[in-house]
Queue: 4 jobs
Job 1
Amino acid sequence: MPLELYYHPLASFCHKVLIALYEAGTAFDAHIVDLGNPGEQAQFLDLWPVGKMPILRDTGKGQIVPETSIIIEYLDQYYPGPAPMLPGDPEACLQVRLWDRLFDLHVQDPMQKIVLDRIRPEDARDPAGVEGAQRRLLTAYGMIDRQAANGTWIAGDQFSMADAAAAPALFYAGIVVPFPESHHNLRAYFERLLERPSFRKVLNEARPFFEMFPYRDKMPARFLSS
């Protein structure tokens, strides 16, 4: 099998690529990486010295493909599924890329700031930084709520890379900073994401690892059983 994914089942950015692979029905070999294991870490850094997961290895083409959005575009180009993750229309494609960036930079990033702060030693925590991250999430939630009123999916009527980015970002962000009750469009959009078969599969695979999530105590009960 030419495609190999190096990832961890708990990691939200890895979920984004898994969703794209499952949407397309693309076969791949999965390699779970334990960065806490010095040997596995060294092997992974040989592939991608930046050390960020996931990466895609295409043995058929001799390519190492990093960064989630680049991986998904690579898959769309060389291993397309029944429906593309990026639309062919240039303007529609720009909207997908815009919302993909919003979820990665303005939902994932502050969410991870909050999560990582919880596992720091008490004297190394950054309450002001966490408060700022919470404000950033609430700002993003408002933008998503307005956008989600426009269609079934975040950048139109077709499920896209932007929705693959949204699903894991909102899943974890909604645990650390719950969605406001008033954001009905955001809440409905998130429920549609949860019903997507590709994302259900990702969450089922991640569930045995939820004990490792620093905010496990805040996870709604419905996420803890299939």
Job 2
Amino acid sequence: MGIEKDIQQLNFRNEYQKATVNIIFSANWLHEKINVFLEEEDITQQQYNIMRILRGSQKPLSTLQIRERMLDKMSDTSRIVERMLKKGLVEKSVCSTDKRLVDVVLSKEGYEILEKLDRKNDEIDSVLHHLSIEEAETLNRLLDKMRDYHTTHAM
């Protein structure tokens, strides 16, 4: 099985086009697998990402600071935070040093959901367990190399 069979396309312009299509297809496949875990807690991947960012920061963050750390840079962070506020996952307050900003922290309920999901980390990781540690390291190195080049050589 390969990308050719998965998308029913036999020919690609070259190996670079094939790799591009394969990365996009694989990213979407991985998103679907992760969504299964998050649906049980009724949260999205962006909400999960924000919750982990807030827990990791161990201090209040503005929506701008959250956006800078997000995996999905296109996310409308303010709107996502508002939905999370309505669900009771985060708490907001006016920033003490800059009244124009809003500080966001993880709520008690948000921490509890993260703890539930933490207990499923092995299950989430198992999506890639058919790769050896060495293969996962190689994949990480190649993906980093792909992004690093375009960071230093803007298109």
Job 3
Amino acid sequence: MSKGMIDKRGFSLLELMMVVVIIAIMAAVALPNMSGWFSKKDLDAAARELFTAYQQARLQAIKGSEEVRISFDTSTTPNSYIVRATTTGVVIGPVSLPDGSISFEAPAFVGPYGSTTTGFNSRGLSLQSGTITIVSSDAPSANNKRMITLTVGGNATIAP
């Protein structure tokens, strides 16, 4: 290399600082949206966990040829549920929702067992059909509810 030439390999300190500033601005814009995404993810996980409990209760009812009830506690330990079989005892629970931002709205089951209890008979049919809604206070308001519906035939669905 001759005396008059300057080595032009690498980055200058100014270029490096500009890249760091751009990354910081992008992170500042993205972080508020991330908290809503995490809250929605927690809501989906709670809904899937309850849906799985319904499936396990139905399986136990058919396999054990017994009645299995799912009771949602609205007084003693709010936002929790327990799955109990008539002869084998507790199948699942008690299970509480993950944190204070996720809760059950009033269960809406219709039948002789009351509005907070449902379950399955020995043939896998529901004892009483209805809906339970799980709500997240931290998720974006357009997408902060999951409804789990149990039909008379014993099928459970999650919406939306």
Job 4
Amino acid sequence: MTTSLSLQDQRKINAARHALSFVDAGQVVGIGSGSTVARFIELLGAAPAKPPAVVVASAQSEAIALKAGLKIVPLNDVRRIDCYFDGADEIDPSLAMIKGGGAALTREKIIASASKRFICMVDGSKWVSTLGAFPLPVEVVPFAEAYVCDRIAALGGAAKRRGELITDNGNIIIDVVGLNFSDCDGLEATLNNIAGVVCNGLFAARRADVCIIAGDQIETRTAA
């Protein structure tokens, strides 16, 4: 019995397949997490020439990469990554993003920051004119949850803990709505400067270099 894919799933596959054209022979590849990334990992593992090593951002991606036959190495062993591939929960024309729906935002941001090039892969529903409809994930040390929520409230945001979820780093995630995204770089820095915040899911200081958007056709965008 065959299972038909939804239109959105097919577009995710299309975006991931197009992203393979950005993988050059001999490159160390960074890999994020999420459903589109899972498709990319599977396709990368089946490619004629696999990268010599990959650095992954989550335990989930690691499991998929191992199954795909990819060689995983720690970031500490390579220091610098040639190209990083990841999705986004929202991405705008400046290629700033909200990420962290899968709770791997901290390791994703670290790998993205260590990469020479960042390729973002999304279906068309993730391309937005302005960020902020998707709640902004913030990874927080559990001890500081109430304090961080109070500080975010002072910025105009409303924060809610994401159930009993614990990140791969042993922390919690709070999801925030109501913030002003007119200055993404400033907002990212302000949130990261709150004591107890490990990282937030606004990727502005390290935007994508290229965004692959899968709609009825594939579009490739660079920053506006």
